[in-house]
Amino acid sequence: NLYYPSVNYNEFKKYNKNYFRKFKTYPNEITILTYDALGLIYYAWKKNGKINSINDFNFKNKIKGKIGTFSFKNGKVKQDLDIYKTENNKFIKF
Fold this sequence. Notes:
This protein is an alpha+beta fold and 94 residues long. It has 2 helices and 6 strands, in the order βααβββββ.
């Protein structure tokens, strides 16, 4: 058995499937980060009406992205990860 931290596996699979359906190729790892980053920029813009600096991204609440939950503290982004294990050739959320 192998245990490891990861993004939300089911949401990641859905994202890959939808991406493939639209673009006829599978996404690389950076595309999902870009997807969540654009969502975050839009959220900050809608909440504040503008974006002037990095300080406009200091939210008290957690932000739910496509593959996980993010929070901000001391100018850094923290992503909450799930713990999975491999068992019988499957990924199981622990």
